[in-house]
Amino acid sequence: MRKLLLLLTLFCTGCTHMAEDSWTGKDKAQHFISSAFLSAAGNAYGQRQNWSEGHSGSFGLMFAISLGAAKELYDSREGGTGWSWKDFSWDVAGAATGYALWNIGH
C-alpha cells in the first residue's frame, strides 16, 4: 500500500492541472459505483483462480484503486478535466465498499 501511495504521489507531481470540483458532483456516484463493482469483480476473479481469500481481496481492491488512479492520471493531461482528489477519494470508498459487500455475500 505504501508503494502505491508513493507511486501515486510521484505521478501527481507531473499533473498539468487539478480539477475544480465539489465533493458532491454528479460524477461522484459513478466513481463510487464503478469502483465498488471493479473491486468485487477483482475479488471474484481471484477466487475463480483459487487464490486465497486475502489474496483475492487484495487483488480486487488494488485493481479498482489502480483503475481509479489511472483515470485521474488521464484526466490530468493537458486537455483533460484535471486530477481530482475528490474523485479519487470516492474511488477508494467505492473499492472498500465493494470489497466489504463481496465478503459479506460470501
What this model shows, in words?
The protein is built from four helices and no strands. It has helices at 2-12, 28-48, 53-75, 85-105. The chain is mainly alpha-helical. The protein has one domain (26-105). The mean pLDDT is 89. The radius of gyration is 14 Å and the shape is globular.
Topology:
Elements: H1 2-12, H2 28-48, H3 53-75, H4 85-105
Helix pairs in contact: 2-3, 2-4, 3-4
Oligomeric grouping of the chains: single chain
How large is the share of residues in beta strands? under 5%
Q: What's the alpha carbon Rg, rounded to whole Å?
A: 14 Å
Compute the number of helices. Answer: 4
Distance between the amino and carboxyl termini: 25 Å
Domains (count): 1
- What is the mean pLDDT? 89
Decide which structural class fits the backbone.
mainly alpha
Low-confidence stretches: none
Helix content: over 70%
How many DSSP-defined strands? 0
Features:
106 residues, 4 helices, mainly alpha, 0% strand
Short structural summary:
The chain has helices spanning 2-12, 28-48, 53-75, 85-105. The chain has 106 residues and is mainly alpha-helical.
